[in-house]
## 1
Amino acid sequence: MLKTLSEKDIQRYARQIILKNIGLDGQKKLLMSKVFILGMGGLGSPVSMYLTSAGIGYLGIADFDKVELSNLQRQVLFDQKSINKPKVDIAKKKLLLMNPKLKINVYKNKITKENVGKIIKKYDVIVDGSDNFETKYLINDSCVKNKKTLISAALRGFEAQITTIKGWVKSKNNPCYRCMFPKINQDNQNENYQDCGIMGGIAGIAGSLQSVEVIKDILGIGKNLVGKLIILDLLLNRFKEISFKKNKKCPICN
């Protein structure tokens, strides 16, 4: 852990440091932490921005797409000049403007079964900002195998879902993503959440919640979302929390 914080660090993170659950020691821990974000879209944009602002020391950002005009409605890291440029390249430049001390690794290749484990082993917490079931299963399976905390979220219309996964823990209260969503029709496995449309502000809310869950996990504070799925429906202003148990027949975490 860092021995001291500079005067500029103390000034930059003052509003966090005064929180009794963070303090100087907590801020030092954040500055030494490593977080991997899969997907730099509607979720990855706000997650990365808030983690950068909070003083996370190392970020890994992965996305093989280029910025499209339709992305600008909700992917707040990008602007008109970003169109047709790799998302991770633009994201890195924007995030370093926010916090020059941040160290960033970019991954432009698609995350696959062959490379995912090698990548996430380098990080403390994994953030799932993907938009399809196939990728969510992939990152879930690797996090369980490598014993990594996964903060997962999904978007649809005016609705957002978020959960925290520690599926490797041998307790009935620690389900993995496959325990929560065990059966997806093969025809729909590659369904893109954006096919149903997304309200831009929902992405910002869900990504912000993910960033707080990451910080809570790193610092070991508060109550996490393990075994809980929070559903926000802002069209009807409804909030729902659903509890899940580990599936005894789950092929991944049992």
Note: Residues 34 and 122 are 8 Å apart (CA to CA).
## 2
Amino acid sequence: MWRLALGTILSLTPGRWRAGLRLNEAIPWVRATVLSGFLESLLAFFALIDWYSHSVTTWAANALDSALRNGPERAVPGQAIGFSALVLWVIHPLTWLIGFFVIEGLLRLLAAAFTEQIFGTAPLAFADWCYGKVTGRSLEGDALYTPSVRAQFRSIVSAVKEKIIVARLPEIADELLEQSEDGEAFLEIHSSRAKAEWIPPRTVRIGDTYFRLEQLTQGNAPRPFVFRLRRVAAGAPGRTVIVYESPREV
């Protein structure tokens, strides 16, 4: 529980900061970020309601009080006074600031839940970016070096579509197809399920044989996920090597 609670707080920080803590193995980052994004959005939403209740009520009351004392608002209808207070609330900078955190929390939640990407909060990312500019730090791995909003949105949509496809299909054994092109051996694995860690150009070991993951493509049901691998002469065991339990010998 303490790991989840700690991750909920630390997931707000930029990736560079989290990497420096060396807690990647100890913290359930995806669950922690989902919870963090939910709490951020929920708290910001309640803050938005409280700000609305306080500001609009106060501004409308002040305007009505001024009208009763023959102030400039005396010529304004009562309904217009309430509408004016609402418009003022909508365009107020604090409303936009709180609304930003409502949306940011939702985006962080969706990104973690559907794409397993951990995004910190924008103010801390901006502070880290400014620090990097001042100190002349390399741009590689910078806190603001993240995919564009459009790319993130496409990633989330793609992940949602993938989950819908998986939910509609039965889980069946993978199908392996061996191919040969220009003297090189290739292997296609057709699967009914996505493989989260299978990202090109990862090395995959099947028995005593090593392959390099070349490409991910979309196939047909009931095995819509196709992983194309190229056989390599040798490989080195290690954490970066994916060990695949084949349904048959290759």
Note: Strands lie at 175-181, 184-191, 203-206, 209-218, 225-232, 241-243.
## 3
Amino acid sequence: MHYSLRFEWLGMVFDISTILMILVTSLAVLFMCLGLTRSLTSATPGGAQNVMEWIVDFVTGITKSYITPKKAAGFVTLALTLLLYIFLGNQLGLLFNVNTAHHNGQGHEVSQQVKDMLTISTNDEMKQQKVEKLEEELNSTDPHAHGVVIGWWKSPTATPSVTFALALIVLLYAHYLGIKKSFGGWLKHTFLNPIHILEEFIIKPLTLPLRLFGNIFAGEVLIAFLLSVGIFGSIPLFIWLGYSVFVGSVQAFIFTTLAMVYLSQQVNEEH
């Protein structure tokens, strides 16, 4: 089991490793775009520009498939950002894992502040259970035990709060566009049909983020298991890593496509 350092602020709990990976992913997208667009030219483009143009054309194709052509151009930037962020975020956890092992003994005592950050909980009973388990692992005399392992590097999309935040941004933006286009039409579309109420406030907010989170989290759990097996897991690990790259790419495509579908339902004239 991997722990995460967390802190509480204004009644909210923040995961330090998740914040770190959100920042790393954002910087990766920024540097990738800057690197691919450093030498733009209207003449024969180089390899980097060709890659960027292919990505933009691919995203433009997704957008125009669902949003009317005269409006699609305004959503290409959003679709491009979603695709690159989710794609790179999905792959980061496949590169390597950064974990630190901590245990009591031999003059290396874990401070009370760190213990508090590892056991933050919503109620006292659950916190006490976490404290007891933490102390047991810290003081374990099992020579094969690693103590308390704190995870620092993972795919940000393997954290539900990240995928739910991405989905919330897309869905709120879609409703904003619907209200901006026609408040009466948005009310009629959203609330007059019970199926639409279920779809807009339960199905979409749950399926969009959980599909992404479930696939990436499950992949990283299996990778961690194969790494723990040692040499016997090397061949399955190699195969699974290749498959995980494919799954991460497909999930980025699916999330971006569904985002454009949900936006199109609010902005297209026929809706």
Note: The radius of gyration is 23 Å.
